[in-house]
Amino acid sequence: MPAMNGAPRAMPAAAPAVNASPKEMLMPTTIAQIAIVIERNANEIIEKLGQLTDEQLNRPLPVPDANSLFAIATHTVGMGEFWVLSLVGGRTVARNRPAEFQATGQGAALIARFQQWLQDIHAVLDPLPDAALHQQVQPPREYSITGGLDEGPLTVFDCLLHVVEHTATHLGHIQLTVDFLQAGALDIDPASK
């Protein structure tokens, strides 16, 4: 797994079985594999955000009810901080979900927030054994229903899969929007419609 500086990051290995093969001894844990996917998606978001100016990141899009790239990325990292750091890690994370969709700001600060989130993900997830995947957590009702999840307790595994799914969804939104912006396809003034 690449670290922030591009160097390979050591993955926690699952505890080997008594007669484990050398390959089994090097297998990353399920939690480590999930962290790899989250990190890969977040790093792709960081790479896309870094290609744009602050004006482009904050530009309203000429589509009804569309969010700016800055707002989508803010929502993505806010969701990830809450679901991993708070629900799984037990940390206090102040989150105002509706405000995420109105967020504006500087790309460099948003990228730094993503990078901090990735460091925090590893601080929370790397020491967890796979047995922790079955622990139950109770997200606030409004986050469960907006995420398409069942009401009631969820497992740590449910929370981490939600982060993988939601981060990947918004990565796709960001990739397409950046492609359209860079091609000039979104240069229509939304006020003219």
Write up what this structure looks like.
Helices cover about 55% and strands about 0% of the residues. The chain is mostly helical and about 190 residues long. α2 packs antiparallel against α6 (about 105-125), α2 (about 30-50) packs parallel to α8 and α4 (about 70-90) packs antiparallel against α8. The N and C termini lie far apart (about 45 Å). The longest helix is centred in the last third of the chain and has 27 residues, at about 155-180. The chain has one domain (about 25-185): Four Helix Bundle (Hemerythrin (Met), subunit A) (Up-down Bundle).
Instruction: Return the CATH architecture.
Output: Up-down Bundle
How much strand? Answer: under 5%
Q: Give the rounded overall mean pLDDT.
A: 85
For CATH, the homologous superfamily is named as dinb family like domain
SS content category: mainly alpha
Overall number of structural domains:
1
What kind of assembly state do the chains in view correspond to?
A: single chain
Q: Total helix count? A: 8
Strand arrangement, major sheet: 1-2
What general outline do the C-alpha atoms trace? globular
SSE pattern: HHHHHHEHEH
Give the CA-CA distance, first to last residue.
Answer: 46 Å
Rg? 18 Å
The CATH first-level class comes to: Mainly Alpha
- Quote the CATH topology: Four Helix Bundle (Hemerythrin (Met), subunit A)
Helix content: 40-55%
- The strand count comes to 2
Which regions are unreliable across 5 or more consecutive residues at pLDDT < 50? Answer: 1-18
